[in-house]
Each structure stands twice: as structure tokens, then as C-alpha cells.
Design a protein that fits this description.
mainly alpha; globular
């Protein structure tokens, strides 16, 4: 249904997995995507990486 979002989220998840393998692991990682990606991306991170959502912190990407 949302092929472009699925494809991009799959790619960012691959990059995220690779980042988590780096030693020493990064202390913080930011994913700068639009809101349309977030529901799918959140469920993939929870499902595929076993993460738990502790809090949500939104930052302003652009101020127009």
C-alpha cells in the first residue's frame, strides 16, 4: 500500500542495525524522517530489534 515508505523504512532499519554493531556503539542516533514514516518505523524497530518505547520526543525539523 505504501511502497515508498516501506522501502525507505526497510533501508533505514538496515543502516540502524549496522550502526548498532559498531564498537563502541553510538550513544545517540537520530532518524530524520517525516511523520508519515514513523508508525511503520516504530513497529519495525520494536519488532525487529526488540526495542521498547520509553518516551517520544519530537524536534522541529524546519521552522517556516
Amino acid at each position: 500500500e505504501y511502497y515508498l515508505i516501506d522501502f525507505r523504512n526497510e533501508r533505514v532499519l538496515t543502516v540502524l542495525k549496522n550502526l548498532l554493531r559498531v564498537q563502541p556503539a553510538p550513544r545517540q542516533i537520530a532518524i530524520f524522517y517525516g511523520a508519515g514514516h514513523m508508525a511503520d518505523l516504530e513497529s519495525r524497530i520494536i519488532r525487529d530489534l526488540g526495542a521498547k518505547l520509553l518516551r517520544v520526543h519530537w524536534l522541529t525539523g524546519w521552522q517556516l
